[in-house]
Design brief:
The complex is a heterodimer of chains A (712) and B (81). Chain A is of the alpha/beta class. Chain A contains 31 helices and ten strands. Chain A has a seven-stranded mixed β-sheet, sandwiched between helices. A two-stranded antiparallel ribbon of chain A has the order 7-9. In chain A, β2 (44-48) and β3 (55-62) form a beta hairpin. The relative contact order of chain A is 0.07. Chain B is an alpha+beta fold and 81 residues long. Chain B starts with a strand and ends with a strand. The chains are: A alpha/beta (712), B alpha+beta (81). β10 of chain A pairs antiparallel with β5 (61-65) of chain B.
């Protein structure tokens, strides 16, 4: 709901009265993101909660009168009793436990109207917080279609809070919600329910302790007391204040007592809530003409999870995804290349030949191209991931893949982060936070970079092009080589996951408790917004590093200059980059790599695709005077490269071995930085750097030495 | 009252009612919170292509869990009268 700028501008800066801050909460798959996007449009800020990598989304919505409303979109959860870091953030923000985020003044709870009972469980917990709540019944059209008649006015009366009927995907009800949100006075719920007698005194004792020792306001203290009895406060994340000793002791004493008595305290509490919800839904939901026959959903699932069709469909979708990345992405990539070539020419004509000319074209423009050239691939991959999530198929993929993942001790949820890592390990690793058990999450993070990411793709493409000449070899050979690299990485990931689950990170096999949401038509606006967000994050996080490093690279490869009077000295060998490559040569010579490849390997730590620009700089520098040695000619340049003894440097074995090295080695500082943030210590990224690169070195040593012995 | 069977071994599409549910364990607390309580009607809808996990229908939505957890939940098949 964009308003004319003169209205919004007048209200935005320095409005004296503080606007209420809203939290938006709901179960996963209830349409929360769609509602958040509909409310805030493009006025969103995406960041992280300090210390944890849970995404923090804050947006601004404008009321009908142009007043801004701040909305915090909290991670989706089924309960405030957190089981993952994401859910812990939702719980902690709502309870005011986080120092970095002020406790929201008001709460918008969104529920899926087709699935009211389970959705209301979270609402029931939230009503205990004693803050104004607006309840949004989303997907009312689907509920009606399913034969559910929900009497909104009755629900409003029973709960004593505003209840908004909504179809977020169509934008219906959003205005009503905004009107409710801009009300200066929102009532508190008058819904009362009976805490089971068996645990009532424990709740009272905990509440008193939370008020006295933890300085909580009375209602929050009661809500926390109730929560502690189902949560045991097992998931703690950085940035959240710990409980006082006294409260912990009281909790512990009661739990021990109940255990000896055989009281199912958590069960009693959950039962009491569901009893209250059952009474409520009996009042407000009429299921007169419920459609009982097999739904469209069941029919689709009959195919999508069929023992034969299921695999065919999963395989087809994955193949379509890869084919799109390989073929479709090539078109805009060609445009980018032509555009950059035009730009280089233009700049080249404007600026006279010299150092500045070289810096701008070989350093600056090449660096920019090195960043944006990957956007088509990343956008296509996130288009697919977005579509799969938005339609509900992603959960089916996890359902089908769970058994396979369980063989290596993970669960189907790891499939999504690992699949995402095919585009880039960074979003893949970030997606791992939906894995509930910390050890399983860590295993997934540790092996995710084995999945061949889009940054390796140009390296593979270059090396395959150098390995097999286009004219002589059918395309199928190239595709086969490419698939082999993807397969190697995938097996590596699974093998090490199995190993880690057996040894280092030994833990019970994870659970697979997951909702299979109904199939829905994708909401393209949400998909596109996510694509734009991911592309933006790539440009910001990886792009700046890639760009900065290609400039640094250019300097390293060009300075210091060979002093005048030494015409026989190779300028690159004399440069800093050449010296680093030389220093590395004794270590990589047994793998068939020389110092020039060494430079590429060192520079790949910025990001693997830097290898290509590094090679183009190296060989352009070597053939100084030949200004046409741009990326288009890179393949020919490396195929022509010779060792000092005159033999070909990039033999088929060296090309293949180099690809194997790129499959397994950890060569991406951006990934390491993300892993550091995800695991909150340098221990795991350093371990990852060591074990992956060490394994790559050993494997390449074996490949090269055996290959040589066999006469290749 | 008909004999209790494990939820993991329930016949496909056979309506049943949950009769016994483990008291402790994080998995079971979360399952309770997602609406699987003693007395709740459930139905086993399908088994994943590789034999595990299973999909059940409970309170109008679809939920997957592994057979290892489902084996600890005992249900009573509802006989059509």
């Amino acid at each position: 709901m964009a308003l004319p700028s003169h209205i919004t501008k007048a209200a935005t800066p320095g409005t004296p009265s503080r606007q209420p801050v809203y939290a938006l909460v709901g179960n996963p798959n209830c349409g929360k993101s769609t509602l958040f996007n509909a409310l805030t449009g493009l006025k969103q800020k995406v960041g992280n909660y300090p210390g944890v990598t849970v995404e923090r989304k804050i947006g601004t919505a404008y009321t009908q009168h142009g007043h801004p409303l701040t909305i915090i979109d909290l991670p989706g959860t089924y309960s405030l009793a957190a089981r993952s870091p994401d859910e812990a953030v939702t719980r902690d923000v709502l309870l005011g436990r986080r120092a970095d985020t002020a406790m929201p003044d008001r709460i918008v709870c969104i529920v899926d109207a087709t699935n009211l009972e389970r959705n209301l469980y979270l609402v029931h917990q939230i009503l205990d917080l004693g803050r104004p709540v607006i309840l949004v019944l989303n997907m009312m059209d689907l509920a009606r279609a399913a034969g559910l008649d929900i009497r909104v006015a009755r629900l409003e009366k029973e709960l004593g809070i505003p209840v908004i009927s909504c179809e977020a995907a169509k934008g219906k009800g959003v205005i009503d919600l905004k009107l409710a949100m801009s009300r200066p006075d929102l009532p508190l719920s008058r819904h009362a329910w009976a805490v089971p007698t068996a645990i009532a005194s424990a709740v009272a004792e905990l509440q008193a302790s939370l008020q006295d020792s933890d300085k909580k306001p009375p209602l929050i203290a009661r809500a926390e007391a109730l929560l502690l009895l189902t949560d045991q406060d097992s998931v703690r994340v950085a940035g959240s204040n710990p409980l006082s000793k006294r409260t912990q002791e009281i909790l512990h004493t009661w739990e021990q007592r109940w255990e000896t008595e055989g009281t199912d305290w958590a069960g009693a509490l959950v039962n009491a809530r569901y009893d209250a919800i059952g009474e409520l839904t009996a009042e407000v939901v009429r299921t007169g003409n419920l459609n009982t026959g097999p739904s469209i959903n069941d029919r689709i699932d009959g195919f999508a999870t069929h023992p034969v069709w299921g695999w065919i469909i999963l395989g087809s979708i994955m193949s379509a995804m890869f084919l799109s990345i390989f073929t479709l992405a090539g078109i805009p990539m060609g445009w980018i290349e032509s555009l950059m070539a035009l730009l280089s020419e233009g700049v080249g004509n404007l600026i006279p030949p010299g150092e500045l000319h070289n810096l701008l074209i070989d350093g600056g423009l090449a660096g920019i191209e090195g960043v944006i050239i990957f956007l088509p691939q990343i956008l296509i991959l996130f288009l697919f991931i977005g579509l799969l999530e938005s339609t509900g198929y992603m959960a089916r993929a996890a359902f089908i893949m769970d058994r396979l993942m369980s063989k290596v001790g993970l669960n189907g949820r790891s499939f999504i982060p690992l699949l995402g890592s095919y585009a880039c390990a960074i979003p893949g690793i970030m997606a791992a936070r939906t894995i509930e058990q910390p050890k399983d999450r860590l295993v997934t993070i540790l092996v995710a970079p084995f999945m061949s990411c889009s940054a390796r793709l140009p390296v593979y493409l270059l090396l395959i092009a150098a390995l097999v000449p286009t004219s002589e070899v059918p395309v199928a050979t190239k595709v086969g080589l490419m698939l082999l690299m993807y397969a190697l990485g995938t097996f590596g990931a699974f093998g090490f996951a199995w190993l880690f689950k057996k040894t280092l990170l030994r833990s019970a096999p994870p659970l697979m408790i997951m909702e299979l949401p109904p199939y829905r038509l994708p909401r393209m606006r949400d998909v596109f917004m996510q694509m734009a967000e991911r592309a933006g994050l790539f440009v910001k996080r990886a792009g700046t590093i890639i760009f900065a490093l290609s400039i640094v690279l250019w300097f390293l490869a060009n300075y210091p200059k060979v002093p005048a009077g030494q015409p026989d000295t190779d300028p690159l060998a004399y440069s800093l980059a050449g010296r680093a490559g030389h220093a590395l040569e004794p270590m990589i010579a047994p793998l068939g790599f020389d110092w020039r490849i060494g430079i590429g390997l060192v520079q790949s730590f910025a990001a693997r695709e830097v290898f290509n620009s590094s090679m183009s700089v190296i060989f352009a520098v070597e053939q100084s005077g030949d200004e046409n040695a741009d990326t288009g000619h890179l393949r020919d340049a490396i195929r022509a490269a010779k060792r000092p003894d005159g033999t070909v440097l990039f033999t088929p074995l060296v090309c293949l071995n180099l690809m194997v090295f790129y499959v397994f080695a950890m060569q991406c500082i951006s990934t390491l930085a993300v892993v550091k943030r995800e695991t909150n210590s340098w221990k795991w990224p350093l371990f990852q750097l060591g074990y992956m690169t060490g394994f790559a070195w050993l494997l390449c040593l074996a490949v090269y030495q055996i290959g040589r012995a066999l006469g290749f | 009252m008909s004999a209790l069977v494990k939820l993991s071994e329930l016949a496909i599409n056979q309506p049943a009612t949950i009769r016994e549910f483990p008291k402790t364990g994080v998995a079971f607390t979360r399952l309770k919170e997602m609406g699987l309580l003693i007395g709740t009607p459930v139905k086993l809808v399908r088994i994943a292509p590789m034999g595990d996990p299973i999909e059940i229908k409970v309170r109008g939505y679809s939920l997957t869990l592994r057979k290892s957890e489902a084996a600890d939940i005992l249900v009573e098949p509802v006989t059509a009268s």
